[in-house]
Amino acid sequence: MTDVSGGALRPARGTGGGGFAHGTRVLITIAAACVVFAGVWFARDILAPAAVAAVVVIIAHPVRHPLERRGWPSWLATTAVIVVAYLILGILATLLVVASAQFIGMLPDYADELTATVQAVYDWLTSLGMTSEAAESAAAAIDPKTLLSFAAGVADAVLGAATAFFFVLAYVIFMAADAASLSRGGRVFGTAAADTIGARYFSGVRRYYVVNASFGLVVAVLDGLFLWWVGVPIPIVWAILAFVTNFIPNIGFVIGLIPPAILALVVGGWPLALAVVAAYCVINVVLQVLVQPKFVSDAVGLSLTLTFFSVVFWTLVIGPIGAILCIPLTLLVRALLLEPDERSGPLRRLTGDPHATRT
C-alpha cells in the first residue's frame, strides 16, 4: 500500500501495526481482565475447589516419577499420587476441625474474664478521651457475644466446606489421572517454550509451598511452646493458626498474632499480652520477615508489592481461600499472559520475574 506520493504507508506512530494505539490496547486489556475476573468471582464456589485440587495435585505429582522408575504400573503410581494428595487434604482438614472445636469449647470457660476485660478496655479508652460510642465499638471486638458469634461462624464454615471438600476430592482424582496421561504424551503444552514455562510454574508452586510449610512448622512449634510456657490457654490452636497463616504472605503474621494476644490480655492482663506480642515479633519477624522472604523470592520470583497486592486481590475474587492460593494464582496469570510474549520483558521484570529478559 502506498500514499499519494508513491511512498509506502506506515502504521501510525504508537500503534505497533495492530490498528490501535498502545494506550487503547492497554485499556481494552484492562476491560477484558475486569470481565474475566468478574466471571471468576461469580463462579468462585466452583473454581475455588478446583484451584485447591490443582495445587495439591501439583505438590503431590512428583511422587509418580520414582515409583514409575521402580517399575510400578501407571495406574498404581497415579493411585499413590491421589493418596498423597488426600493425606495432605486430610491433615489440613483435621487441623482446622481440631482447632475450631477447641476454640468453641474454650469460650464458655472464659466468659466472665472476657466480660471483665471488655469493661476494663472500655474504661481505659474513655479515660483517654474517646467517646463512649467509639470506646464501646472498640471493646466489642472481644465481647463474649461477638466471639461466640465468630466461633459459630467458624463451625458453620467448617461444616459448609464439606460440600466443597467433596468436589476437591473428586477433582484430585480426575486431575491426577489427566496429569499421568499428559506426562506420557511427549510435549505437554505443544511447544518446547510452553513446556519450559509450565515446568517452571509447577516447580515454583511446589517450592513455594515446601518453603512455607517448613517455615510454618518451625514458627508454629516455637509459638505454641512459648504460649504453653507462659500459660495462654489452648496453645495448640494458636500453633495451628500460626502454621496456616504462614501461607498468607505479608499479613499472615498479624492475623496469627491477634487472637492469642487478646486471650493473653484476658487471662494475664497487659503484661502477658505484651509478652506474647514481643515473643511473636521476635520469632515471626525474624523467620517470616527477614529469612523466609529470601527463600520465597528464590522459589517464585514475585516482587514484595505484587505479593501483598495478590493477597488482597485474590481474597476479593474467590474468597478467603484466595489468601492461601494467591501466589500460585498470580504465577498462573503471569505464566499465561506474560511469559509467552517476548515483548513483555519490562512487565515481567516489574513482577519480579528473574527469567525476564531486558528489551
Automatic annotation (TrEMBL):
Transmembrane segments: 20-40, 46-63, 75-104, 157-177, 209-230, 236-258, 270-291, 311-333
InterPro entries for this protein: AI-2E-like
A Gene Ontology term for the protein's cellular component: plasma membrane
Claim: Membrane is one of the keywords in the record: yes
Pfam family, one: AI-2E_transport
Membrane topology classification: Multi-pass membrane protein
Keywords, in A-Z order: Cell membrane, Membrane, Transmembrane, Transmembrane helix, Transport
Signal peptide start-end: none
Subcellular location(s) of the protein: Cell membrane
Keyword Cell membrane: yes
Chief location bin: membrane
Family classification: Belongs to the autoinducer-2 exporter (AI-2E) (TC 2.A.86) family.
Protein name: AI-2E family transporter
Originating species: Agromyces fucosus
